[in-house]
Design goal:
mainly alpha; 19 helices; 80% helix; globular
């Protein structure tokens, strides 16, 4: 495991640096590192590190979402209002609808299998989107119209909506049933996640005001609470859902509201943690990419992915109708809502593990979605934000 970690960090930094010199997103270098080191190319990563890959990726996601919450001002979000709420579910719903239309025709699968595939592919990746939006906020691009804040908030809730639908459709495909209660679980998960996170954030703000301690200790406390909130999501079953990742982000927002000065310092600490977490996240996502499956999929799977991306972009455009954003800003939002990585890496193999007939093709399309959209989305965000957004 120690050798694997050394290879992940050193090779990830080296390739990330090379890509940055080429004026390409560092993310591409990290993904390529994972693909090269992973079991399908050089096979240099120990099974022990691959065995806990999902947990390490989740820790990295918790770090970036906490940092996002600590930087997200509710007043900025209120300025956006309706579009931010619509971005939480409309683009994903459009993409799933696109999959239902295209996948049965191009891949020869049933409507139910297309629905399972749609819920795997439809989630946007906060691990790609959130760091990009934080960078925009730090440099002051698009912040006057709260564009990065709006995208960051929408991307975080989008995952909750899609994952709950994924659980419902895989249950149905596996021979189980699906009921209205499965869809009631979506707003319940969102509301309880928000409430739990806000309560924790308020309590932390009060605690940090009364008890003086080093910022490093505060980071450990916040991280531990975040782990508990995500664990609670897995513990709750039935109609009572709970979105752990949304709770983590809302805890950061509430803490920022209650203790703004402390939040600024804590955000700086989290940005240092993200240097290592980012490498772990994207290298391990790259290692999960099954290269043989990607080659077997062929042009049909790639055509499906590109087709449903058009549906997603149309969904984003509908969310932004009636806003004060100009054409370039709307186009930027459509690009920023493209990347897929973490959710697809986590859920893509589940149908295959369940023994579903569509397991292989779902995994293949999930892998291709990562390979196509994560680099393209990250590149388009980096390439267009200075050209399309005002500073």
């Amino acid at each position: 495991m120690l050798l694997s970690l050394a290879l992940i960090f050193l090779c990830g930094l080296a390739l990330g640096g090379i890509f940055r010199k080429l004026h390409l997103p560092q993310l591409l270098g990290m993904l390529l590192t994972g693909i090269l080191l992973g079991p399908y190319v050089l096979n240099l990563l120990d099974s022990s590190i691959l065995g806990i890959s999902a947990d390490l990726r989740q820790i990295a996601l918790i770090i970036i979402l906490t940092r996002a919450g600590l930087n997200l001002d509710l007043e900025d979000l209120k300025k956006v209002g309706r579009p931010a709420a619509l971005l939480c579910f409309v683009p994903a719903a459009f993409e799933i609808a696109g999959m239902l239309l295209l996948a049965p025709r191009l891949l020869g699968i049933s409507l139910l299998e297309a629905a399972v595939m749609g819920t795997v592919v439809a989630a946007v990746s906060p691990a790609v989107v959130v760091p990009g939006m934080l960078k925009l906020m730090e440099e002051g691009y698009g912040t006057k119209k709260s564009i990065p804040q709006m995208i960051m908030a929408g991307a975080s809730v989008d995952d909750v909506f899609v994952i709950v639908l994924f659980t419902s459709f895989t249950g149905l495909a596996g021979g189980g049933g699906i009921s209205a209660w499965d869809f009631v679980r979506i707003p319940v998960s969102i509301l309880l996640g928000l409430a739990g996170g806000i309560l924790c954030g308020i309590l932390l703000a009060v605690f940090f005001r009364k008890v003086h301690m080093r910022d490093s200790v505060k980071v450990i406390i916040i991280l531990s609470l975040s782990f508990l909130l995500v664990t609670l999501e897995h513990a709750l079953t039935g109609i009572v859902g709970f979105s752990g990742l949304l709770a983590v982000m809302s805890m950061g927002i509430a803490l920022q509201k209650g203790r703004k000065e402390a939040a600024v310092r804590l955000s700086a600490k989290y940005s240092k943690l993200w240097v290592a977490a980012e490498l772990l996240l994207f290298v391990l996502v790259g290692a999960a990419v099954d290269i043989p499956y990607a080659f077997k999929a062929g042009a049909a799977a790639a055509a499906v992915i590109l087709g449903v991306l058009v549906f997603r972009m149309l969904g984003v455009l509908i969310c932004l109708l009636g806003t004060e954003l100009n054409r370039k800003e709307k186009l930027f939002c459509m690009f920023a809502y493209m990347p897929k990585a973490t959710v697809q890496a986590a859920t893509g193999s589940v149908p295959l593990a369940m023994g579903l007939a569509c397991g292989n093709i779902v995994l293949t399309v999930a892998v291709l979605a990562i390979l196509i959209t994560a680099p393209a989305g990250a590149f388009l965000i980096d390439f267009t934000y200075k050209r399309f957004l005002s500073r």
